[in-house]
């Protein structure tokens, strides 16, 4: 049996370690329509956005399930772009804690939790971290606008203009020169 390389941490947003990229995720949920939208950003250690993605989902039973689906999408995107070491951050503390993997999950979203735990072991290193809403702002904006506009996209080395300001604010908070 392979030793688990998945770690759960709660911390303020900060620059990731060398060779590790940050994958941030968030979801917005429409209870009336049972639909959600996932927003995901991947950034390098210098806060530069490497990838951004918005996906729409149907038949989502709860806002909690929407957050778990967004986390699953974040892990899948990390594989898609072939990242060996990742820090996966979301603002749902409950979702982040479920990733620890010590106990079998018995909730309605067990299949997603199981998939995330299994997939996270395939990374060379995978750390799940809780991010405060303000620190996860760009992904929140992506998810909210995606659901409102009913749009999906995947961008490489870019983020939509409506989310650029939140990225620039993070850069300034961390002391990086803003290049926009």
From TrEMBL:
<protein>
    <recommendedName>
        <fullName>RNase H type-1 domain-containing protein</fullName>
    </recommendedName>
</protein>
<dbReference type="InterPro" id="IPR044730">
    <property type="entry name" value="RNase_H-like_dom_plant"/>
</dbReference>
<dbReference type="GO" id="GO:0003676">
    <property type="term" value="F:nucleic acid binding"/>
</dbReference>
<dbReference type="InterPro" id="IPR052929">
    <property type="entry name" value="RNase_H-like_EbsB-rel"/>
</dbReference>
<dbReference type="InterPro" id="IPR036397">
    <property type="entry name" value="RNaseH_sf"/>
</dbReference>
<dbReference type="Pfam" id="PF13456">
    <property type="entry name" value="RVT_3"/>
</dbReference>
<feature type="domain" description="RNase H type-1">
    <location>
        <begin position="24"/>
        <end position="145"/>
    </location>
</feature>
<dbReference type="InterPro" id="IPR012337">
    <property type="entry name" value="RNaseH-like_sf"/>
</dbReference>
<dbReference type="GO" id="GO:0004523">
    <property type="term" value="F:RNA-DNA hybrid ribonuclease activity"/>
</dbReference>
<dbReference type="InterPro" id="IPR002156">
    <property type="entry name" value="RNaseH_domain"/>
</dbReference>
């Amino acid at each position: 049996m392979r030793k688990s390389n998945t770690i759960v941490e709660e911390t303020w947003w900060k620059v990731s370690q060398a060779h590790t990229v940050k994958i941030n995720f968030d979801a917005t949920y429409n209870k009336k329509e049972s639909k959600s939208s996932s927003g995901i950003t991947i950034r390098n250690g210098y806060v530069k956005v490497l990838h951004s993605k918005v996906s729409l989902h149907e038949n989502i039973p709860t806002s909690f399930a929407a957050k778990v689906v967004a986390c699953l999408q974040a892990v899948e995107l990390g594989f898609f772009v072939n990242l060996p070491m990742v820090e996966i951050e979301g603002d749902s503390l409950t979702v982040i804690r479920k990733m620890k993997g010590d106990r079998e999950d018995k909730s309605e979203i067990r299949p997603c939790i199981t998939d995330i735990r299994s997939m996270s072991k395939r990374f060379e290193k995978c750390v799940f971290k809780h991010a405060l809403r303000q620190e996860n702002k760009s992904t929140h904006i992506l998810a909210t606008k995606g659901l409102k506009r009913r749009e999906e996209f995947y961008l490489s080395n870019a983020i939509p203009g409506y989310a650029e300001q939140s990225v620039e604010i993070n850069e300034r908070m961390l002391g990086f020169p803003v290049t926009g």
